[in-house]
Amino acid sequence: MPAMVEFDKVTKRFGSLTVLDELTFAVKPNEKVAIIGPSGSGKSTLLRVLMTLERIDGGVVEVEGEPLWHMRKGDALVAADERHLHRMRAKIGMVFQQFNLFPHMTAIRNIIDPCVAVLKMTEPEARARAESLLDMVGLKDKMGNYPAELSGGQQQRVAIARALAMRPKIMLFDEVTSSLDPELVGEVLGVIRRLAREHDLTMLIVTHQMGFAKEIADRVCYFDHGRIAEEGRPAEFFANPKNERTRAFLKAVLEV
Amino acid sequence: MITKIPIGGAAEQLVAFVGTYLKPLVITFIWITLSLNGAFFWLFQSLPAPAWIIGVAIVAWRFAGPGIAIFGLLGLGLLWNQGLWGATAQTLSLVLTGTLMSLVVAIPLGIAMAESRVVNSVMAPILDFLQTMPRFVYLIPAVAILGLDVAPAVFATMTLAVPPPTRLTAVGIGQVDPRMVEAAEAFGSTRWQILAKIKLPLAFSAIMLGVNQCLMMSLSMVIIASLIGAGGLGAEILKAISEVKAGRGLVAGIGVVVLAILIDRITKGAAARLTRRWGRDTVMQQA
Amino acid sequence: MEFPPIPLESWIDAAIAWLVVRGGPIFDVIGKTLSTLELLLRDALRGLPPYVMIPLLVAFPLFKRRFRTAALLLAALLLIWNLELWREAMQTVSLVLIAAGLSLGIAVPLGILAAESRLARSIIEPVLDYMQTTPAFVYLIPAVLFFGVGTVPGILATMAFALPPPIRATSLGIAEVDPQIVEAAVAFGSSRRQLLLKIKLPLALPYIWVGVNQCIMMSLSMVVIASLIGATGLGTRVVEGLSQFDIGKGVEAGVAVVAVAIALDRLFAAGGGKDGSKPAM
Ligand SMILES: Nc1ncnc2c1ncn2[C@@H]1O[C@H](COP(=O)(O)OP(=O)(O)OP(=O)(O)O)[C@@H](O)[C@H]1O
Ligand SMILES: [Mg+2]
């Protein structure tokens, strides 16, 4: 089976700091990958590169066998233009740590407007889709509220619905529960859990919730210094980490 | 229609009242402005123009860099060359008089606003009002009470130039980290000591910005005040406009812009220079 | 070591004469357009008598249930009427609205440009710095040089004077939009245009309104000064009061100017903000 996402020796630098260091990494269609690792190890950067929010300095990223940051021109690869990026972006949805809902739009507008503007759907179509998605995340009664009037957990659920509305093939979650109060974490994880079970979605999940990673993921990747230091099926990975640093990291987070 | 509210008449009576009963105050004000303005003007006349121009260029170099220094040399040189040095000196004297008198009012007032809720709640709307009023309107009470010439020009200038430094002083003091004040209180400092030793120094950059704005407002108003008999570059512009002498007006206008840019850049540069050390000191204290 | 004076004045006079001859048709078109616009608006504003106009204007904040605003507006308008300066005030307002409107028409696009393009910003910023250090009075000179005296140079000087604040407000408002929100929109595939029109501009709106308000207030300030070069209205009364030493007349006109300032401020405050959206600022 061809890979859904493939990183081939991808390098990303911020000035003199190398954040992704010749990273090679593949994700199969429908696979759920949990990414864990210490702060600053480049987890967010990995997702942001995939979302085309950060350029890369070397290597090739492919999505469904098609280069993301490049275009094929004859045999050569040339830098992608805005149109190519736009087309590739449509395959990917992202949920952010800070929700990033549009503050000047109600919950339902947050979903309808991107559908109309980007997918060129008609208003009634978009509204129908938005309503069913909000229903799915359990927020049908909050449709008309502005983000500021919703709790963090509710905002994050709207954000998930908004990302799903674009019908992406790949969903990226970047520490989506880290800025939530503890009692709100459950409702958001519940939605993601259902997504993982019921939808054909490739998911990359950056998280600090080890229990959640263990439960939901097909594979866990431990990220350190811009590389994957260790990976494996959750059961083995958590039970018997091979790498010294992985062990230290797991010990530290599990103690908290 | 109900009868016209006699605002005009009331104003005339008020002016008459001020003229009769507050005469000593008015005379004192006129005397102070005339002496200050005279002193500044004497100062400008005491050295030949080239000496002043070179002096300004040196100061500009120190505080605002070589670009502004050359600009000052050329700009002021041009004014002198065009026979406008006298007018420039007159304008500058008025600006300095207006600024000085405005600051004497503004800084204590700003401190009072920061220190006292009551003063703040009384003054804030007054300052708001003064700042939204179109500048021209300030000339009317000035002329009514003080007649023509230097004193009303300075008075009108003060109405425009007092609010910004007052505000900035109050804001600057208000923004001083309360933890620093608490620390000083813990040492047993008096309120007065806290103000003088902690708050004012830490509000210094805000106050300097206030001084800068005060100067700019003064310049703007002193030029407009040519309408009520203030001499200088404004009077030159006014004359040129009424005689439709394009070149003359534009040259004087350029002169005003030269002064504005020099004053603005030099005071901003000086403020940055003086506060840079403060910034470093506070950073070091925190580290 | 006295240098002979550079004959700057005569050079300028010659240059202007040349420009006026060469650019004559352009100046004519600008002048005609502006004066026609101004006449239309002035007639419209004066067409309705005060007892019709005042309720219409006060209805606006009342409609939005802002009773204090409505009361203040009503008081200001009644005062102008009572002082028998309604016609002059309407003339001043028509100049303000034309100048501020045109000024905003230039300023908002420039503000967007300054926010979106680094090159544009590096040009616009210093120009604004110079414009804002230039005292109000000086703006009258070039206007008179090219357009003589009358309402047209008054409008042009006012436009130039009132230009910087809305440019700054617009560009600041756009720059202040949370970059994470922008990123989310990019992630959803918005184009640059959509990003600007649907995300950045709506979120910058509260700032832009502040710019609009400042622009109007500065226009009023300048229109009154521009009475010196023949832009008639309340300012003319102020100047007359000053030159005839008629304190009563001057003070009444001055009070009317302040009333106009309050009325405009309240009216445009009623227009902006609280429109249901709740930008998180
Ligand atoms: N725009 C940027 N400019 C400069 N450096 C950056 C930028 N974004 C990230 N970095 C740096 O890159 C490194 C990796 O950042 P990244 O956000 O990917 O880490 P992370 O693994 O997601 O950490 P965390 O768990 O704290 O979110 C960090 O050292 C960060 O400081
Ligand atoms: Mg991160």
Please give a structural write-up.
The complex is a heterotrimer of chains A (256), B (287) and C (281). With 256 residues, chain A is of the alpha/beta class. Chain A has helices at 43-50, 82-89, 107-119, 123-136, 152-165, 182-198, 210-216, 234-239, 244-255; strands at 5-14, 17-27, 32-36, 58-63, 66-67, 70-73, 76-79, 92-95, 170-174, 202-206, 219-224, 227-232. Chain B has helices spanning 7-21, 23-46, 49-64, 66-81, 85-115, 117-132, 139-146, 150-161, 163-174, 178-186, 191-202, 204-224, 233-242, 246-286. With 287 residues, chain B is mostly helical. Chain C has one domain: Orthogonal Bundle (MetI-like fold). In chain C, 80% of the residues lie in helices and 0% in strands. Chain C has helices at 8-22, 24-47, 50-63, 67-82, 86-116, 118-133, 140-147, 151-162, 164-175, 179-187, 192-225, 234-243, 247-271. The chains are: A alpha/beta (256), B mainly alpha (287), C mainly alpha (281). At the B-C interface, helix 1, helix 7, helix 12, helix 13 and helix 14 of B face helix 1, helix 7, helix 11, helix 12 and helix 13 of C. The structure holds adenosine-5'-triphosphate and magnesium ion.
Q: What's the number of structural domains of chain C?
A: 1
The rounded Rg of chain B comes to 22 Å
Global shape of chain B: flat
Strand content of chain B: under 5%
Largest sheet of chain B: none
What's the total count of β strands of chain C? 0
Give the largest chain-chain interface (CB within 8 Å): B-C, 52 and 54 residues
- According to CATH, the homologous superfamily of chain B is MetI-like
CATH class of chain B: Mainly Alpha
Report how far apart the termini of chain C are. Answer: 62 Å
Shape of chain C: flat
From the alpha carbons, calculate the radius of gyration of chain C and give it in angstroms.
Answer: 22 Å
Oligomeric assembly: heterotrimer
> Total domains of chain B, how many?
1
- Small molecules bound: adenosine-5'-triphosphate, magnesium ion
Q: Which runs of chain C of at least 5 residues are low in confidence (pLDDT < 50)?
A: 273-281
Summarize the structure.
Chain A is an alpha/beta fold. Chain A is built from nine helices and twelve strands. Chain A has helices at 43-50, 82-89, 107-119, 123-136, 152-165, 182-198, 210-216, 234-239, 244-255; strands at 5-14, 17-27, 32-36, 58-63, 66-67, 70-73, 76-79, 92-95, 170-174, 202-206, 219-224, 227-232.
